[in-house]
Amino acid sequence: xxxxxxxxxxxxxxxATSTGGLMNKMSGRIGDSPLIGSGTYACDLCxxxxxxxxxxxxxxxxxxxxxxxxEYKGLQLQEAVDYVIKHRLDDGKAGMIAxxxxxxxxxxxxxxxxxxxxxxxxxFMEVGIWE
Amino acid sequence: xxGWSIAVHGGAGVDPNLPLQRQEAAKQLLTRCLNLGxxxxxxxxxxxxxxxxxxxxxxxxxxxxxxxxxxxxxxGTVEMEASIxxxxxxxxxxxxxxxxxxxxxxxxRLVMDKSPHSYLAFSGAEEFAKQQGVELVDNDYFxxxxxxxMLKLAKEANTIMFDYRIPLIGLETCGAGAAxxxxxxxxxxxxxxxxxx
Lengths: 131, 197
Hints:
The structure holds 2 protein chains of 2 kinds. Chain A is of the alpha+beta class. Chain A is built from 3 helices and 8 strands, in the order ββββαααββββ. Chain A has helices spanning 54-59, 62-73, 77-87, and strands at 2-7, 13-19, 40-42, 46-52, 94-100, 105-109, 114-120, 125-128. In chain A, the strands form 3 sheets. In chain A, strands 3-4-5-6 form a 4-stranded antiparallel beta sheet. In chain A, helix 2 (62-73) packs across helix 3. Chain A starts with a strand and ends with a strand. The mean pLDDT of chain A is 97. In chain B, strands 2-3-4 form a 3-stranded mixed beta sheet. In chain B, helix 2 packs antiparallel against helix 3. Chain B is globular, with a radius of gyration of 18 Å. Mean pLDDT of chain B is 86; it is low at 163-182. Chains A and B meet through strand 1, strand 2, strand 3, strand 4 and strand 5 of A and strand 1, helix 1, helix 2, strand 2 and strand 3 of B. Strand 2 of chain A pairs antiparallel with strand 2 of chain B, so a sheet runs across the interface.
């Protein structure tokens, strides 16, 4: 699975996710990536793209929950990502990237590694795999 | 109002023994895609255009599990899916079950912009792709030698696996062998058959 989240200089957020799914999957199987609110979500507040165990991400409505805890619990972006990864996955393994309309960028995962990169207008740039 | 920011991912759940040159290749692709997005943002492209642009690049490169290099079904074919969402008005588009569309994310964008729906799948999505004139290729285009090998390993271990870029040796660590260790179930299967992506 691959994904990208962006907030532009006008504060507009967007998210995109694309995948081939699971190796050796049954034909017709649908995972989290095309499901709005599970693998992909964007609103005024933030944009989120998820990857990992599709069935766990779907059951946890993972991407929408990041926006929901920001909206209803007043969490900041990284807090929201950490909260959702910690409390919404049961025993599932997943990762996500997110941006907020304030220009913040965040990511989190509870499995071994995640291929990710992030950058902000003030010059920060990071590409990583492991912790 | 803060400035722009961007993040990309290529999948979660990486084999701890992934060879260094694979790790390096992944980092180079992620860096290339970040730079693609950064120059688009500096040219004042909108967020929705930038995410589509960057994911197209990731789909075209065979390194990660999407587009060319996508994981294979039990039949050895490719069925792809994608979704895109624009924050300001929460508009969205999604597709599933694609077998010939070169860039699934662009078809998801067309579902959002050019159809009255938010999700099209399988033959309906392929029909819409023809109507919209997006680039179509044979299913073989998406299939790589490496993934044929991975599918063979997954079948031998009788597991359903995420796109787990593992060296050709050592599957037993995440296949049936691991299944014995963990009694936890996910949708009726031992949790360990869902090797993290």
